[in-house]
């Protein structure tokens, strides 16, 4: 099982990396699957791997897998290689390697002789699973979102991921928009949906400190977002995030652009002989960062800006 | 044409808990083929397309007091719906078990008897054949009738026997799979990727499965498996090459064979694990005619093959492999 970073022609491969918890990566990537067919763009760098998906210039998601998540990360490319891959296919393929009961270590190499992404299990010498995923030259990302702060004081709040998901699920009305309002006095976040009647969910900063963990806002602002895009930001949060009950941070930038950030644990599950300290504390390097950007609905009724 | 036998407790266990659940997965309809010494469940031997399955029992494995007679060398064959058979057997067993366990003062003699009969079904003037199960209940005999096809003619039975003879052909090289679970888990996850799977088996003891579409190639290789039959030494210096490369080279040397089978068929054949075999052997028959999987059963508590029961499947090959 040689893992030299040289391919058959003697050129160095752009990337040879190894991870020891495939399920964690599957969880992180699954959180940005909101449709059956999604084309993702993957960017490799010396810092790690970023995977980007977007829809109709209104919704974009990024998964950051920094190199510290990997047991091994050998980067030899010049510049930052980018390629396109089918997200669903890639996740289903990774899932094949994640067999309960086995230690799921895989090696990923790029590029193969035909610019494929090459995966191979490295657990055992006598049984091996491998995959070659076809890649494409990626389309340029059509939407340059350019997230900027809304003003001198940042506008953001952090809410428990489980509560956020539940609130968004509850606000489901067909074809509706969801209005998110932040107000400083009293500090409060309101989600409001209009349909046959209306539903409003308030997170009061001082009342529910176990739900609303952080809050920063110096003036009232309010924006509307299409329900289906907002829903995409929480629909596939992995069960582990809900169980860990981490916070998800929502930030409103200039023009009402919404940024939603989640943290997904990619830690190896505890094994009796492992030296990883897993008593509820996650080392920062075992966390994948997920970011969503949602464009606001713009119409004449917008309250601000 | 007569058939009558008593199912033993061992037979009941073998059928109801192990073989019928597995054979159910092979197909709803199968042939039962009864001879003087053996009892067979045969799937798809007479029609070309599906996965073939042959379950063979020596009569003593299932029955006592086995009596059979017919004008065709005491052989009888007919088609039966396995789900109906399974359901009838389950319900007879319930009655049998209840009554037997309530015996007062000593052993209650009770049997499950199985017989071939001709009866008048409801709303019909024409007697039709049934396989009948009978046992004693609390107050009366309990009978379950399973409708069967007309017994096969002499000509059809000859065809069935010929198909059975062909199906007994052994591949020259067989590799032993230790962990059927691992194989099943892998194929379960692979099966959504594509419909067709390449299977190659080498004389070195390698089993290599691969599914390939325009967008993805997914494969699993199991090496250093025990080999029965024709074997060969692994050539030196190839250990580090990819599974695909090693397989290609082995085929070129004549040390391996490769065939294409349907993923659905392969997955179906893995359901035979419900019969609780101790291991499975995979092989490709000569000229790549089919992929054979033979399930081995040990005498409980030993590592001796139980020769009274056997189960094997033959998967049709979709495209001749390059041998």
TrEMBL record, chain A:
Origin: domain of life: Eukaryota
Subcellular location: Nucleus
Keywords per UniProt: DNA damage, DNA repair, Nucleus
Database matches in InterPro entries: DNA_clamp_sf, Rad1_Rec1_Rad17
Coiled-coil residue spans: none
Pfam families for the chain: Rad1
Leader sequence residues: none
Keyword Signal included in the entry's annotation: no
Family designation: Belongs to the rad1 family.
Protein name as annotated: Cell cycle checkpoint protein RAD1-like
TrEMBL record, chain B:
GO cellular component, one term: checkpoint clamp complex
Signal sequence residues: none
GO BP: double-strand break repair via homologous recombination; meiotic DNA integrity checkpoint signaling; mitotic DNA replication checkpoint signaling; mitotic intra-S DNA damage checkpoint signaling; nucleotide-excision repair; telomere maintenance
Keywords tagged on the record: Nucleus
Top-rank lineage group of the source organism: Eukaryota
Subcellular location: Nucleus
Family named by the database record: Belongs to the HUS1 family.
Name of the protein described by the UniProt record: Checkpoint protein
Organism whose genome encodes this protein: Coffea canephora (Robusta coffee)
């Amino acid at each position: 099982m040689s893992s030299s970073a040289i391919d058959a022609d003697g050129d160095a491969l752009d990337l040879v990396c190894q991870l020891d918890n495939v399920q964690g990566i599957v969880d992180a990537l699954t959180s940005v699957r909101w449709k059956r067919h999604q084309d993702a763009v993957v960017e490799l760098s010396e810092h790690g791997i970023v995977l980007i998906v977007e829809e109709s210039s209104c919704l974009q998601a990024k998964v950051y897998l920094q190199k510290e998540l990997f047991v091994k990360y050998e980067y030899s490319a010049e510049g930052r290689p980018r390629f396109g891959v089918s997200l669903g296919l890639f996740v289903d393929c990774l899932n094949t390697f994640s067999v309960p009961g086995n230690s799921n270590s895989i090696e990923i190499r790029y590029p193969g002789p035909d610019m494929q992404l090459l995966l191979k299990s490295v657990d055992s010498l006598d049984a091996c699973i491998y995959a070659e995923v076809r890649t494409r030259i990626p389309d340029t990302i059509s939407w340059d979102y350019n997230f900027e702060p809304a003003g001198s004081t940042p506008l953001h709040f952090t809410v428990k991921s489980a509560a956020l998901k539940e609130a968004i699920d509850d606000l489901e009305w067909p074809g509706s928009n969801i209005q998110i309002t932040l107000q400083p006095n009293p500090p409060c976040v309101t989600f409001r949906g209009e349909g046959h009647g209306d539903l409003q969910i308030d997170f009061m900063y001082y009342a529910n400190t176990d739900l609303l963990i952080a809050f920063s806002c110096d003036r009232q602002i309010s924006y509307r977002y299409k329900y289906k895009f907002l829903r995409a930001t929480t629909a596939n949060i992995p069960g582990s995030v809900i169980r860990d009950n981490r916070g998800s941070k929502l930030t409103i930038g200039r023009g009402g652009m919404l940024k939603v950030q989640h943290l997904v644990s990619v830690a190896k599950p505890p094994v009796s002989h492992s030296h990883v300290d897993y008593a509820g504390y996650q080392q920062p390097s075992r966390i994948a960062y997920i970011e969503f950007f949602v464009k606001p609905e713009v119409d004449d009724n917008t309250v601000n800006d | 044409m007569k058939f009558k036998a008593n199912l033993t407790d061992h037979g009941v266990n073998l059928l109801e808990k192990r073989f019928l659940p597995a054979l159910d997965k092979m197909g709803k309809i199968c042939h039962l083929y009864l001879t003087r010494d053996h009892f067979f469940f045969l799937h798809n031997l007479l029609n070309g397309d599906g996965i073939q399955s042959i379950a063979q029992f020596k009569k003593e494995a299932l029955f006592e007091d086995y009596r059979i007679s017919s004008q065709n060398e005491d052989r009888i064959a007919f088609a039966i719906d396995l789900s109906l058979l399974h359901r009838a057997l389950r319900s007879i067993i319930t009655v049998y078990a209840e009554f037997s366990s309530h015996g007062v003062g000593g052993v209650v003699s009770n049997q499950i008897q199985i017989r071939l009969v001709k009866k008048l079904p409801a709303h019909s003037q024409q007697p039709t054949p049934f396989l009948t199960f009978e046992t004693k209940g609390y107050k009366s005999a309990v009978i379950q009738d399973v409708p069967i096809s007309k017994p096969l003619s002499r000509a059809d039975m000859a065809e069935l026997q010929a198909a059975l003879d062909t199906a007994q052909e052994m591949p020259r090289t067989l590799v032993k799979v230790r962990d059927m679970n691992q194989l099943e888990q892998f194929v379960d996850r692979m099966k959504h990727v594509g419909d067709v799977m390449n299977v190659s088996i080498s004389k070195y003891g390698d089993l290599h499965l691969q599914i390939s579409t325009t967008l993805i190639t997914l494969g699993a290789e199991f090496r250093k498996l025990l080999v029965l039959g024709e074997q060969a030494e692994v050539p030196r210096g190839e250990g580090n090459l990819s599974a695909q490369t090693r397989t290609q080279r082995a085929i070129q040397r004549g040390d391996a064979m490769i065939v294409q089978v349907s993923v659905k068929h392969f997955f179906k054949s893995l359901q035979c694990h419900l019969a609780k075999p101790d291991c499975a052997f995979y092989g490709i028959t000569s000229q790549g005619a089919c992929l054979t999987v033979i399930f081995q059963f040990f005498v409980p508590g030993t590592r001796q093959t139980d020769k009274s029961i056997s189960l094997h499947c033959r998967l049709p090959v979709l495209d001749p492999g390059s041998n």
